[in-house]
Amino acid sequence: MTEAQNPLTPSSVSMTTPTTSNLPTPKRALAIGAHPDDVDFSCGATLAKWAADECQVSVLVCTDGSKGTWDPDADTQQLIAQRQDEQRAAAKALGATGEVAFLGWPDGELESATKQRSQVAYWIRKLKPDVVIGHDPWKQYRLHPDHRHAGWLTVDGVVAARDPKFFPEHGLPHHRPDSLLLFEAESPDHFEEVDGFLEPKLAALMSHRSQFETTMKTDGTPDGDGALQGAALAEFRSRMQEKLEVAGRANGIVQAEVFKLIDDL
Ligand SMILES: [Zn+2]
Question: Separation of 38 CA from ligand 1 center, angstroms?
């Protein structure tokens, strides 16, 4: 049976969503990540592009990042403090001028329950972003539970922030963002052109010095100042550049970050 003959797939109905690109630069954007470094990896170039165009970029991190080490003897409180400092430095490297906030839930144990949803909705109401960016909770076979839960908190937090009967104890006006962008998307249908913004993204990622060994999988030895150097830095740079270029080529441009766009909020 051809598609035209099948009554379930009328030929006049498109089964795929057209891809969109380049949202107008928001006045305010809020990126929500499970751990320090997630937003820099997933949408750092987009945030840097908007920041360069006078968008007030803020970052909300759901967990304390306290399991981000392969050293069982690492001092947990010291690691938490270091990772917060690293996230603040990373936001600065992107040119972000908004808040860098931490919910502080234990790494690996994030839940997407009412309490956490209230916290995310609070920050959305407080910061009033036009665009919210976060993990796609519908991504199949996602391994890390914090990424799943942070995705749900982002989506559900937008709904709660939008409707005035949710969490009146915030004492803040409800707020409806214009757009929600989901990174690591199961079905990406939107790209942001990011030519020229690899450098601030790299600079942000280089701020997460505690993560060179674990997340960034670089085997180079940091120099005395803790910065990545030499071949390890070159390898990491080319890996990040390749990622932007693969996404760019798929969309007929040079470099891109891709998302699922939800703008019916
Ligand atoms: Zn993460």
Answer: 5
Domains identified in the chain, total number:
1
In the reported structure, the alpha carbon of residue 217 is separated from the centroid of ligand 1 by a whole-number distance in angstroms of 14
Ligand 1: distance of its center to the CA of 116 in Å?
Answer: 17
Distance between CA atoms of residues 97 and 175, nearest Å: 20
- The Å distance, Cα 68 to ligand 1 centre, comes to 9
Report yes or no on 113 lying in a domain.
Answer: yes
The answer as to whether 84 is a domain residue is: yes
Domain extent at residue 48: 25-262
CATH of the domain at 203: 3.40.50.10320
Q: What DSSP state is assigned to residue 135? A: E
Cα 107 to ligand 1 centroid, rounded to whole Å: 9
> What predicted TM-score, i.e. pTM, was given to this entire model?
0.91
CA of 16 to the centre of ligand 1 (A): 30
120 occurs within a structural domain: yes
N-to-C CA span, the chain: 38
3 in any annotated domain: no
Per residue in 193-219, pLDDT (tens digit) is 999 999 999 999 999 988 887 766 665
Q: Which tens digits make up the pLDDT trace of 64-73?
A: 999 988 888 9
d(CA 158, CA 175): 8
d(CA 256, CA 226): 29
Helices (H), the chain: 38-52, 76-94, 114-127, 145-162, 198-206, 230-250
33: exposed, middle or buried (Cβ count in 10 Å: 0-12, 13-18, 19+): buried
How far does residue 246's CA lie from ligand 1's centre (Å)? 22
